[in-house]
Design a protein that fits this description.
This protein has 682 residues and is of the alpha/beta class. The protein is 31% helix and 20% strand. It is built from 22 helices and 23 strands. The strands form 7 sheets. An 8-stranded mixed beta sheet has the order 4-11-10-9-12-13-15-14, with helices on both faces. A hairpin with a 2-residue loop joins β22 and β23 (535-541). α2 crosses α13, α6 (267-273) packs parallel to α7 (293-302) and α8 packs across α10. The protein is globular, with a radius of gyration of 29 Å. InterPro entries: SAM-dependent_MTases_sf, Trm1, tRNA_met_Trm1_C, Znf_CCCH. Residues 36-86, 603-645 are annotated as: Disordered.
Length: 682
């Protein structure tokens, strides 16, 4: 059956018995149809016409003219010459290339796009690929990624011999991916090698079903179809009619209509309708503008058993403590202002996901959770099990944060004790702190509840890291992904939140100790310590606050401060007037410098481009953001830093009264009356 879509390239839908047949037919359709009959006009009654491949009600064609961008006559070409898709560009459209995708974008900001989030999309493709590798191996299918060779999972402790028991630096020994491929080929019980392979761009009958709930231009979905193997279908949904039409155009422009389907639906309603066990998606990706809270309830129901849920949050002002009451209304947790706010934001969204999943006897297992630039990104698997849901209360914790010195303590909501084969659940006891902070005498803030368990599955992260480092040409941000994931594998898994070295120093008003010396002091004291990907100066450690302040007291003894200037009510006065119990040793240890730091990996990237922060919301009305508005925004940058001190500099600015015809100063006016400048102002 041949389907022709309005204004777009033909969408070919045929039954197939093997993936190669579909790929062959698809390639024929996009090579000018030289081996097929010319397409019929839209008014032919035997042809089914739909609206740009979008999942909406069919609309009748408005005219019988040939479709835009389609040449009904086969172009003359040699058999060895392949022609790219010939989707015509509308007036004002441009082509943006990212990864293997070439996306059509309108000139105005009618559809949201932020090039800085290329790292987000690259990381998502890498994670979904490894998830597909694991899932498809259980189904007897081997995925094939271009440019990938047999490799061993990256081990950051390769250069280290044996782990010192006092360092806390784990030497992670993980089965190599080459061994996993061998196991997959032979089977768990020694079976034969599976005959089915899945490559990128091909439709796999037993593959994964992917939903991008808020697709905008469809860039992420197109990249899934072009770069992730083992997929059965990709649904790119957006509530905007213009966005849905653009998704369909981009799917045909990239030749992935056999995998990608555009949908114009409310994302929540679409997921609610797919709650059935046989209808659920294997992968759901939510990347909204702002908070994903309205979509979380539907998402935890629509993802399949053991499926992957990918969520992005860009409302960091709310999650970082600027509006704790708003954070509670959206995520069921109170955020507080603290130096560890970025990791706390990750734990808030995990708490919200797990709480919503528990309502339906489901629970989450985090695979990778990262704080990047101006947003956070979490990848979790969703499982079903009434017995496991009972553990969720003991996984959540409240945070007691001192407003004076920044010391914090965690209080679990529930308690889980094991007595032989029996598990007993009870309420937790507390609080872990007194009415005032024992170190500085100030009060505590109460935040949370937050997720108190590990943020990452280290074995899974190492597989993703190995795939990216072994095939660096696959992603444009491969270096940054390698640095980020390397730090993730080094983080202490069982230590929530962190301190920052500069905040510890500013609290006692002393100079900041070098990072390696402070880490060495904690290692000498027998505690574990690691860095954090969420903050450059972060210190994750299992040492209690008392030990940290003892180390700072010892450092202050060699770098004294003027105590006569300290207020008696200040935290520094209380902390420094207490004698240290621990005598810290600041001799630098070799294991104090982590491998990611030794190898000079790109861990914290500088600003990728000017004005790189969150972009303005897409204008659904079609007006977009004008170029004049962008110019005025750029002109207003740094206006406070470059203040005018001389009145003659005002001549470079146009006179507003002159533009309105009301200026009476004439040539004596301190502003410019140049018509060209006033025209630019308009």
């Amino acid at each position: 059956m041949l389907i022709i879509t309005a204004r777009l390239l033909p969408l070919l839908t045929v039954p197939f018995t093997h993936q190669r047949i579909l790929r062959t037919v698809g390639s024929v359709a996009y090579r000018g149809l030289r081996t097929m009959e010319p397409l019929r006009a839209p008014q032919d009654p035997q042809v089914n016409t739909t609206l740009s491949g979008v999942d909406t009600k069919p609309q009748p064609p408005t005219s019988g003219a040939p479709m835009e961008g389609l040449n009904p006559t086969p172009a003359a070409s040699t058999p060895d010459q392949e022609m790219p898709p010939t989707t015509g560009l509308l007036p004002g459209e441009t082509v943006v290339r990212e990864g293997k995708a070439a996306i059509l974008f309108p000139s105005a900001n009618e559809v949201f796009y932020n090039p800085v989030q290329e790292f987000n999309r690259d990381l998502t493709c890498a994670v979904v690929t490894e998830f597909a590798r694991e899932q498809m191996s259980r189904r007897g299918v081997k995925v094939v990624v271009p440019g990938e060779k047999k490799r061993v999972v990256v081990n950051l402790a390769d250069e280290e011999k044996e782990t010192d028991m006092q360092t806390g630096e784990k030497k992670r020994v993980v089965v190599s991916l080459a061994d996993e491929e061998t196991e997959m080929q032979t089977g768990e019980k020694g079976g034969e090698e599976p005959v089915v392979t899945a490559s990128v761009g091909e439709r796999c009958q037993n593959g994964l079903r992917v939903l991008e709930g808020l697709a905008a231009s469809g860039l992420r979905s197109v990249r899934f179809a072009l770069e992730v193997p083992g997929l059965s279908s990709v649904t790119a949904n957006d509530f905007s009619a213009k966005a849905a039409a653009l998704i369909a155009r981009n799917a045909q422009h990239n030749g992935v209509t056999h995998l990608l389907q555009a949908s114009q639906r409310d994302a929540s309603m679409l997921m609610y309708e797919m709650r059935g066990k046989k209808d659920r998606y294997d992968v759901i990706d939510l990347d909204p503008y702002g908070s994903p809270a309205p979509f979380l309830d539907a998402a935890v129901q629509a993802v399949g058993e053991g499926g992957l849920l990918c969520v992005t949050c860009t409302d960091m002002a709310v999650m970082a403590g600027n509006s704790g009451e708003t954070c509670y209304s959206k995520y069921g947790s109170v955020s507080i202002k603290a130096k560890y706010c970025h990791e706390m934001a990750l734990r808030i969204i995990l708490h919200s996901l797990d709480q919503r999943a528990n309502v339906y006897q489901r629970y989450i297992h985090p695979l990778l959770c990262v704080s990047v630039d101006f947003y956070i990104r979490v990848f979790v698997r969703v499982h079903t099990g009434q017995a496991m849901v009972k553990n969720s209360a003991s996984k959540q914790a409240l945070v007691y944060n001192c407003v004076g010195c920044g010391s914090f303590h965690l209080q679990r909501l529930g308690k889980r004790t094991t007595q032989g084969k029996h598990i007993k659940y009870s309420a937790s006891t507390g609080p872990p702190v007194g009415a005032e902070c024992e170190h500085c005498g100030h009060r505590h803030q109460l935040g949370g509840p937050i997720w108190g368990e590990a943020l990452h599955d280290v074995s899974f992260v190492q597989k993703v890291l190995s795939a990216v480092s072994g095939n660096p040409s696959r992603f444009g941000t491969a270096r940054r992904i390698e640095g980020m994931l390397s730090m993730v594998t080094e983080e202490l898994e069982d230590v929530p939140l962190y301190y920052t070295l500069d905040n510890l120093s500013s609290t006692v008003h002393c100079s900041t100790p070098p990072l390696l010396q402070f880490r060495s002091a904690l290692l000498h004291a027998g505690h574990r310590v690691s860095l954090s990907h969420a903050c450059k100066n972060a210190l994750k450690t299992d040492a209690p606050p008392r030990v940290l302040w003892d180390v700072m007291r010892c450092w202050e003894q060699s770098n004294p401060v003027k105590r006569d200037r300290l207020s008696e009510s200040s935290p520094a006065h209380h902390i420094l007037n207490t004698e240290p119990i621990l005598q810290a040793c600041f001799d630098v240890r070799e294991d104090a410098n982590p491998q990611s730091r030794r190898r000079h990996l790109t861990r914290f990237q500088e600003n990728p481009e000017p004005f790189w922060g969150p972009k303005a919301r897409a204008n659904a009305g079609g007006g977009g953001i004008s170029s004049d508005l962008e110019d005025r925004r750029k002109q207003g940058q740094n206006k406070r830093k470059n203040q005018i001190t001389d009145a003659t500099q005002l001549k470079s600015f146009p006179c507003k009264r002159f533009r309105k015809g009301k200026c009476t100063h004439g040539e004596k006016c301190c502003y410019s009356h140049d018509p060209q400048q006033t025209d630019k102002m308009e």
